[in-house]
Write a structure and sequence with these properties.
alpha+beta; Rossmann fold; 2 helices; elongated
Length: 68
C-alpha cells in the first residue's frame, strides 16, 4: 500500500504569511496522522520576484514551526 503524500508548495516571492503557516501545519499533521509524508515543492514560477533569500526563509520558517 502506498503512503499518502501531502504537499506544501509556496512561492519564494515574499515572507510566509498566516495562511501559508496554517497550510503547512495542517498538511504536516495529516501526513503524520495517516503515516504519509509531506512534500515541499518550491514554486519558483515568478522569476521576477522569487529570490534565494525568500527560499531560505521558507526553510527557516518551517523549522520554526517544527516541520522537518
Amino acid at each position: 500500500m502506498t503512503r499518502p503524500v501531502f504537499r506544501f508548495a509556496p512561492s519564494p516571492n515574499g515572507e510566509l504569511h498566516l495562511g501559508h503557516a496554517y497550510s503547512a501545519l495542517l498538511n504536516a499533521r495529516l501526513a503524520r496522522e495517516t503515516g504519509g509524508r509531506l512534500l515541499l515543492r518550491i514554486e519558483d514560477i515568478d522569476i521576477g520576484r522569487c529570490t534565494p533569500e525568500f527560499e531560505e526563509a521558507i526553510y527557516r520558517d518551517l523549522a520554526w514551526l517544527g516541520i522537518e
